[in-house]
Write a structure and sequence with these properties.
Elements (H helix, E strand, L loop, with lengths): L1 E5 L4 H12 L3 E6 L7 H10 L4 H4 L6 E2 L6 E5 L7 H9 L3 E4 L8 H4 L1 H21 L4 E7 L23 H20 L2 E7 L2 E2 L8 H10 L4 E3 L6 E2 L2 E2 H13 L12 E6 L5 E2 H12 L5 E3 L15 H7 L7 H15 L3
Parallel strand pairs: 1-2, 1-5, 2-4, 5-6, 6-7, 7-12, 8-11, 9-14
Antiparallel strand pairs: 3-4, 10-13
Helix pairs in contact: 1-9, 6-7, 8-10, 8-12, 10-12
InterPro entries: Epimerase_deHydtase, NAD(P)-bd_dom_sf
Pfam family, one: Epimerase
Keywords: NAD
Length: 341
């Protein structure tokens, strides 16, 4: 297939692009390469996909990769209502995987406009392009953050998600509602994926895995929120990628029911890990005890996440399963090489 992957210079988009290419698909990656975190890491990911930085820095030009890779890249923002439809018109995609978004729960408290621009306006533009250019399947990133203040554990996709505690979570819930409306009105399939605390090599510098490792290696204290009384369903990047690619590659059924055109899945490790145990795994890998700064709960945070993935198992015969110690070690191995530590 010819697949558009948005957010291709991002953490998950990079790995999904690599996996799709390995499976023989043609991929066009899109990213606006904003400066929410170090752009050098984004360009380094693109270089792994064969894109020269000087070419990737240009706007609106579809740049082919060096060598034999079937990957091309375009620097473009989802909210660009003029150039995004032109891309769809010129490329004739078979499917779209929308992983681009303004990420980060805490940053949404500081810069809410960025979230509305990218996650709401940008997502609307993706939906409009899908309906206008005959896209059969849109797979898009949602988030475990939509569960908000829900207390029933583990989280199931049939749970009501009406109590978000951050604007980021609210924009992701809005994406699901918008996708439902478009699937119902225009008859193309939309699949939303609620990712649970993704970590691994090439990960984002604002995430706990990166922050803790970087601080410990550089002999700085780590910030432990809610005095360590947090639990997360940490999910390794390869497990996330496998789930996304399986859903993209599975042929669409001849679906007569409009209910089947709209699907939501959790992709998580089906296990809630205590934050202090996660920190211990990092300490053991680095053979260093972290200096810990115990802090209160942060606005926008939730105490516990835990994914029920029964729907994913039933429909795709897939369950993420990478053990936390293995995933942590793989990240640290990558970090030491990338930063020459």
């Amino acid at each position: 297939m010819k697949i558009l992957v948005t957010g291709a210079a991002g953490f998950i988009g990079f790995f999904v692009s690599k996996s799709l290419l390995a499976n023989g698909h043609e991929v066009i990656g899109l990213d606006n390469i904003n400066d929410y975190y170090d752009v050098n890491l984004k360009y380094a990911r693109l270089e792994e996909l064969g894109i020269i930085r000087s070419e990737a820095e240009q706007f609106n030009n579809v740049v082919p990769s060096e060598g034999q890779s079937a990957f091309s890249f375009v620097r473009l923002a989802l909210e660009d209502r003029e150039n995004l439809p032109e891309l769809f018109k010129n490329q004739s995609f078979d499917a779209v995987c929308n992983l681009a978004a303004q990420a980060g729960v805490r940053y949404s408290l500081e810069n809410p406009e960025a979230y509305v621009d990218s996650n709401v306006v940008g997502f609307l533009n993706i939906l409009e392009c899908c309906r206008n250019y005959n896209i059969k399947h849109l797979v898009y990133a949602s988030s475990s953050s939509v569960y908000g203040l829900n207390e029933k554990i583990p989280f199931e996709t049939t749970d009501a998600v009406d109590h978000p505690v951050s604007l980021y979570a609210a924009t992701k819930k809005s994406n699901e509602l918008m996708a439902h409306a478009y699937a119902h009105l225009y008859g193309f399939k939309t699949t939303g994926l609620r990712f649970f605390t993704v970590y691994g090599p090439w990960g984002r510098p604002d995430m706990a895995m990166f922050l803790f490792t970087d601080a410990i290696i550089n002999d700085k204290p780590i910030k432990v929120f809610n005095n360590g009384n947090l639990e997360r369903d940490f999910t390794y990047i390869d497990d996330i990628t496998e789930g996304v690619v399986r859903i993209l590659e599975t042929p669409l059924a001849d679906e007569t029911s409009k209910k089947q055109l709209f699907k939501i899945y959790n992709i998580g490790n089906s296990k809630s890990v205590k934050l202090m145990d996660f920190i211990t795994a990092i300490e053991e890998s680095l053979v260093t005890v972290a200096k810990k700064e115990m802090l209160p709960m942060q606005p926008g945070d939730v105490e516990k996440t835990w994914a029920n993935v029964d729907d994913l198992i039933a429909d795709y015969e897939y369950r993420p399963n990478t053990p936390i110690k293995l995933g942590v070690q793989r990240f640290i191995d990558w970090y030491k090489v990338y930063y020459n530590k």
